[in-house]
């Protein structure tokens, strides 16, 4: 297993801060970056597998859309060790998929590997068929707004009755005071994890207009518009949260 590298991508002054990209530089430091940037990340990933175990239906697939380095897939595979499990990981970054293959080959027991499939693909175009669990952990927030409802509708159509979506995101708040408070506390979280003011500022510039967070109300309404019977917030830590949406049986 490769040694985890420290995230120092924005540690030095940049003449021009480019739009954030999940390229090879990010892939190399991604585990460190996400742990130091996303409050509650390990809790959400760990519980993703637990949720998948509850809602997975034998004979159906689990999809991880925007699988990055496979953390959610590993959580699922740890929780579900039954024969016939099929889990499909999709990501549009070649660098992510290449590294994910390495991680899974080292971490997944040989007996489980036949059911694991990885593909570099656009999640807005890839088919979702015969699914009971679809995972969108920190993926949806990077999609253009106009692509979000069509994707949820496609997922809903591809889910078996009683199937679920786990969707983890950075969120915004309707109250300006609440938004400012939790935004500032998130900055404190990053400082406490060793990021400098320069790193925080430059990464924020790189993510501007690329990461578009939305409120809980918007997420719940979009789930209803896509046809889901119910949706709930099951986890929140500062301005990061995870939701569970369930298709009617």
From TrEMBL:
<comment type="function">
    <text>Catalyzes the conversion of S-adenosyl-L-methionine (SAM) to carboxy-S-adenosyl-L-methionine (Cx-SAM).</text>
</comment>
<feature type="domain" description="Methyltransferase">
    <location>
        <begin position="62"/>
        <end position="163"/>
    </location>
</feature>
<dbReference type="Pfam" id="PF13649">
    <property type="entry name" value="Methyltransf_25"/>
</dbReference>
<feature type="binding site">
    <location>
        <begin position="122"/>
        <end position="123"/>
    </location>
    <ligand>
        <name>S-adenosyl-L-methionine</name>
    </ligand>
</feature>
<dbReference type="InterPro" id="IPR041698">
    <property type="entry name" value="Methyltransf_25"/>
</dbReference>
<protein>
    <recommendedName>
        <fullName>Carboxy-S-adenosyl-L-methionine synthase</fullName>
        <ecNumber>2.1.3.-</ecNumber>
    </recommendedName>
</protein>
<dbReference type="InterPro" id="IPR005271">
    <property type="entry name" value="CmoA"/>
</dbReference>
<dbReference type="GO" id="GO:0016743">
    <property type="term" value="F:carboxyl- or carbamoyltransferase activity"/>
</dbReference>
<comment type="subunit">
    <text>Homodimer.</text>
</comment>
<comment type="similarity">
    <text>Belongs to the class I-like SAM-binding methyltransferase superfamily. Cx-SAM synthase family.</text>
</comment>
<keyword id="KW-0949">S-adenosyl-L-methionine</keyword>
<feature type="binding site">
    <location>
        <position position="41"/>
    </location>
    <ligand>
        <name>S-adenosyl-L-methionine</name>
    </ligand>
</feature>
<dbReference type="InterPro" id="IPR029063">
    <property type="entry name" value="SAM-dependent_MTases_sf"/>
</dbReference>
<feature type="binding site">
    <location>
        <begin position="91"/>
        <end position="92"/>
    </location>
    <ligand>
        <name>S-adenosyl-L-methionine</name>
    </ligand>
</feature>
<feature type="binding site">
    <location>
        <position position="137"/>
    </location>
    <ligand>
        <name>S-adenosyl-L-methionine</name>
    </ligand>
</feature>
<feature type="binding site">
    <location>
        <position position="204"/>
    </location>
    <ligand>
        <name>S-adenosyl-L-methionine</name>
    </ligand>
</feature>
<feature type="binding site">
    <location>
        <begin position="66"/>
        <end position="68"/>
    </location>
    <ligand>
        <name>S-adenosyl-L-methionine</name>
    </ligand>
</feature>
<dbReference type="GO" id="GO:1904047">
    <property type="term" value="F:S-adenosyl-L-methionine binding"/>
</dbReference>
<keyword id="KW-0808">Transferase</keyword>
<dbReference type="GO" id="GO:0002098">
    <property type="term" value="P:tRNA wobble uridine modification"/>
</dbReference>
């Amino acid at each position: 297993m490769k040694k985890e590298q420290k995230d120092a991508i924005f540690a030095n002054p940049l003449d021009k801060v480019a739009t954030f990209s999940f390229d090879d530089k990010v892939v190399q430091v991604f585990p460190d970056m996400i742990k130091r940037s996303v409050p509650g990340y390990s809790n959400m990933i760990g519980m993703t597998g637990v949720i998948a175990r509850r809602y997975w239906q034998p004979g159906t697939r689990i999809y991880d859309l925007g699988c990055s380095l496979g953390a959610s897939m590993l959580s699922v595979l740890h929780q579900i060790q039954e024969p016939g499990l099929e889990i499909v990981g999709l990501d549009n970054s070649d660098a992510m998929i290449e590294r994910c293959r390495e991680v899974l080959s080292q971490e997944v027991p040989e007996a489980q590997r036949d059911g694991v499939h990885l593909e570099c693909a656009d999640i807005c175009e890839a088919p979702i068929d015969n699914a009971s669990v679809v995972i969108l952990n920190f993926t949806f927030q990077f999609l253009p707004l106009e692509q979000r409802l069509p994707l949820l509708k496609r997922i809903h159509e591809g889910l078996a009755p009683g199937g679920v979506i786990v969707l983890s995101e950075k969120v915004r708040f309707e109250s300006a005071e609440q938004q400012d408070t939790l935004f500032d506390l998130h900055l404190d979280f990053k400082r406490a994890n060793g990021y400098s003011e320069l790193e925080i500022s430059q990464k924020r510039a790189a993510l501007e207009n690329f990461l578009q967070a939305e409120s809980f109300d918007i997420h719940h309404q979009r789930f209803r518009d896509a046809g889901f019977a119910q949706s709930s917030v099951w986890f929140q830590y500062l301005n990061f949260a995870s939701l569970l949406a369930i298709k009617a049986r």
